[in-house]
Write a structure and sequence with these properties.
about 280 residues; alpha/beta; Rossmann fold; six-stranded mixed β-sheet; about 20% helix; damaged DNA binding; Metallo-beta-lactamase domain-containing protein; RibonucZ/Hydroxyglut_hydro
Amino acid sequence: MDSHPSDKNLTLDSTHLFLSTQSSPPDSLIFPPIPRTFPPSKHVPNTRFLIDAFRYAADFSVSYFLSHFHSDHYTGLSPSWSKGIIFCSEITSRLLSQILNINPKFIYPLPIKIPVLIDGCEVVLVGANHCPGAVQFLFKVPGRNGGFERYVHTGDFRFCKTMLLQPVMNEFAGCDAVFLDTTYCNPKFLFPLQEESVEYVVNVVNRVGGELNEGLQKRVLFLVATYVIGKEKILIEIFKKCGRKVCVDSRKMEVLRVLGYGDSGVFTEDESETDVHVVGWN
């Protein structure tokens, strides 16, 4: 769906949007119940909204939400996708259409921090502090006696205190349920702040690079492991503060172009041009 919504009063009907993608649409759609065996963490209660659940796609919904562009969350998507509308951030929508080759008519990008009404429910996207385009979904679902049930679906996210300063997040304090990323929810995991991690990497590159400039008789290749997207902040800071371009392969460069970094001068595909190279995890 080639849309760039900005209207604060945007109201959408996912069934209508889906029917508009069909060459010979039926007059209406009748949805069977969502199976009781459907993973509850991927379903917003009292709706047909399915989150990062493309592998489970079936005829009981046409309302799909994608939190971010990492393969463990978009598994089930392919260029032949036609089972429903995908709601996501603007950045993720570009990655879906230009990298995965999803037909744009099935993609509907939503604005950040602006409430949108979808199928009678209020939906707000807020940043997840994870990778470019990653968002959390905040849902207000009509409940009994004219009230609302409030649900937060974090996707993969990295908590930071500034999230608490966002007025829209305050509205969901004491919400009915949180679908939480618990990947590192264990006291044994203690990570530095993102800014501290970036500073550490920059300092290592500068220190080792300085030793080489002082005549140390060895060569060092700096390898930075990333997924298809992620670590862009670190890579850009290496360029800015270390004066080193970053070498990437053609697929990574394609993604960087979609993200708007292709012509920034930060990245190169020429391995001989720099001693900082991006590699995969394997």
